[in-house]
Amino acid sequence: MLNKPVDDSKVIEEVMWSFFQRYFLPGFVFQGIVIGGGYATGRELAEFFLPHGPVGGLLGMATAALIWGAVMAVSFELCRMSGSYDYRHFFQRLLGRAWFLYEVLLVLLMIVILSVVGAAAGEIVNNIFGLAPVTGTGVLLVAIGVLVFFGSGLIERFMGGWSILLYVSYIALVVWSLSSFGADIERTFREVPNGDGWFLDGIRYAGYNIAVVPMVFFCLNHVRRRKVAMTAGLMAGIIGMLPAVFLFVAMMSAHDQMGDALIPSALLLERLDARWFEVLFQLVLLGTLVQTGVGMIHGVNERIAATLEDKGREMPAFVRPVIAALLLLAAMVAANAFGLINLIAKGYGMLTFGFIIVFVVPVLTIGAWRVFRSAPVEREVKVD
User: Fold this and answer.
1) Average pLDDT of 130-155?
2) What is the DSSP letter of 382?
3) Burial letters for 353-369: b for 16+ Cβ neighbours within 10 Å, e otherwise?
4) Which of 78, 128, 227, 384 is the most buried (most CB within 10 A)?
5) pLDDT of 196-207, one tens digit each?
6) How many Å from the N-terminal Cα to the C-terminal Cα in the chain?
7) Could you tell me if 170 and 246 are in contact, meaning their C-beta atoms sit under 8 angstroms apart?
């Protein structure tokens, strides 16, 4: 019997995708979840980093990225060692009976993030097409529902592919801004004083955003070795922050106006005065909002599915989009009640130190001790 010829191009494609899944995909999934809930609009950057001036803001971002990388390196390895691919099992192993504290904080944070995502989607659709904001929320819900219905495989490819598109868009934005407003940006860096407190705000910003790290665990089933897990974690901190750096630098072209803008990125696009790029960029931003919603809700779905699996039951596929709709509806009610800016300024701030206590400190102490006292044993790849 003759052996079938090997398709070299297909083999190369599979090898490259496998490499991407192990080293880069966790970072892009993390970035996709983090960005839509806040800095895609520029509003988070205005709240946490703009008050500290251009250099102070960048130093605060570097602080947050370092914390992200350290926590994710340890968390990814703990996840790999124990095979805990959902947050319930992960925190049961990390915190024991106190694991539920994370879930309580997560539900509160999810309502805040989804309300921000829903409001931003409505604003973007209104800006592009002139449609009622509720239309944007509806588009968001349908897109999230479809992705969570079909599960991890489609979500991985969407998150990875859209994140690359996002990077290209943000690089184009900062290059164009430097070309058009380079003198204004340079003047801002030279003349605007750098305030104190950037280190603390970097910690605060990292503290509540790090809460979404367990939402990334579903894509770590491709990782078999400690070196890969920790490298992917460290890289994820950088991958997650770079688009924010690009946007923040571009925002310095109108430093004095960004603090009061509901969506600073939209103000920046208006200043570029290129309608085609404004539409294209906001469509990319709309996709990032879908990324955030999908990442958060898929994490909850995976937690529920794992709980049912422990009881010998299977989660029906139709339940996944139903949960998405219920969570997004609750978030919209919160957004209408409190307003977008108040939710970011107060909601995030109130939860930050809770996540530092419940997640960051235990991971960097108990988690790190467990990781480094054990041998780096290879783990079989989980098959879905």
Assistant:
1) 84
2) P
3) ebbbebbbebbbebbbe
4) 78
5) 899 999 988 888
6) 33
7) yes
3-state SS assignment for residue 224 = coil
Query: What is the domain partition of the chain in residue ranges?
Result: 23-373
Q: Given the structure tokens 């192990």, which residue do they identify?
A: 22
Rounded Cα distance, 342 and 336, in Å? 11
The amino acid at residue 79 is C
pLDDT for the residue numbered 287? 86
C-alpha to C-alpha distance for 174 and 245, rounded to whole angstroms: 9
| Mean pLDDT, all residues of the chain | 84
What is each CA distance from 41 to 123, 265, 382, in whole angstroms? 10, 5, 36
149: CB partners within 8 A, 6+ apart = 317, 318, 320, 321
Helix (H) / strand (E) element for 304: namely helix 275-310
Of the segments 99-103, 264-268, 376-380, which one has the largest average pLDDT value? Answer: 99-103
Q: Which CATH architecture has domain 23-373?
A: Orthogonal Bundle (1.10)
How many H helices and E strands in the chain? 18, 0
Residue partners of 26: CB distance under 8 A and separation at least 6: 72, 76, 216, 219, 220, 232, 233, 236
Please report how the helices 319-338 and 133-150 are oriented relative to each other, as an axis angle in degrees rounded to 10. Answer: 150
* pLDDT band of 235, cuts 50, 70, 90: very high
**Res 383: pLDDT:** 43
Weakest mean pLDDT among 21-25, 96-100, 259-263, 300-304: 259-263
Helix 53-82 vs helix 198-209: crossing angle, to nearest 10: 30
- How many C-beta atoms lie closer than 10 Å to residue 143's C-beta? 20
